[in-house]
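FORM 7B: Structural annotation worksheet

SECTION A. Query
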Amino acid sequence: MTRRRSSLASFALVICAAMTLSACSSDDKKPSAASSSGAGIADTPIPAAPGGDEIADLQSRWWGWAASQPAATNPVSDTTGQQCAQGQPDDVWFVAGTFGADAKRTCTVPAGRALAGPLLNRTADTAEQCEAFIAASDGEVVLDGSPVDVKKVGPEAVKFTGVAGNPVTNSAGEVSKQGCGLWFTLAPLAPGAHKLTISGVSDDFKVSVEYTLNVAD
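SECTION B. Predicted structure
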């Protein structure tokens, strides 16, 4: 993990259609992220979720989640949080960036659910493309005013399936690529309201996402 102190202003998140860059990016599109105006991954008092690094196939699972909905109900295209519960797995709650726009999302999160997502991420045909992307990427995650651990992940093989009309791959079918990005995980949050901001920048691509997360009792 690379850590530096930064003053990035507030993605997923991290995403790009057809998978290029993104806090989601695929081969021909820009990354999905959260916007930023500084540089440096924050040194943080909030560690990654216990066992977060061991979430099996995290990148593949996230990409599959992001590509599991058509544009109208896609959680990456969503700017309000209305779609954030779409397709969520039972063991982790995924968050996302955007395709380049800023977003403010309000979501209800089940109690006891760990969180995970990218600041910026992409899929690529080669490991070298991923390495160049990571080298140009930076970002910050802030939870309730405190910075969160961010980890550079990949390149590694990812495989997932998209549905017809999804804005990530733009087509239905299985995808096998190299995946990489800046990622974070968080242990389950206490019941109540929390503010999560995700900021990221890669070259001239910037995105900013602010989540209000209402965790159930």
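SECTION C. Observations
The first helix runs from residue 58 to 66. The two ends are 33 Å apart (CA to CA).

SECTION D. Sign-off
Analyst initials: ____
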